[in-house]
Amino acid sequence: MQWNSVSEFFAMGGYAFYVWGSFGACAILMIAEPFLAKRRLSEVRKSLARERLADELELQQKTS
């Protein structure tokens, strides 16, 4: 496709809303994903720590 001006490029032959909306959604998701992954990792670590503590307490109760 060939554009004669910058405004034609940004209009994308009438598909600008779809094209730029897709780019925007992709950019937002790519920026958000590392933050969400870090939060999920933190939640998993906390859950594992709680399970380990519960197992240790259970083991102490069985031995005493």
Question: What would you note in describing this structure?
Answer:
It is a single chain. This protein is mainly alpha-helical and 64 residues long. The chain has one domain. It is built from 2 helices and no strands. It has helices at residues 6-11, 16-63. The radius of gyration is 26 Å and the shape is rod-shaped. The mean pLDDT is 92.
Concise structural overview:
With 64 residues, this protein is an all-alpha fold. The protein has helices at residues 6-11, 16-63.
Tag the structure with descriptive keywords.
rod-shaped; 0% strand; mainly alpha; 64 residues
> Total strand count, please?
0
Structural class given helices, strands, pairing? mainly alpha
| Integer count of domains | 1
- Indicate the overall shape: rod-shaped
Q: Could you describe the largest sheet, including whether it forms a barrel?
A: none
Share in helix: over 70%
Overall residue-averaged pLDDT value:
92
Low-confidence stretches: none
Work out the helix count.
2
Distance between the termini: 79 Å
Determine the strand fraction and express it as a percent band: under 5%
Radius of gyration: 26 Å
Give the helices and strands as they follow along the chain: HH
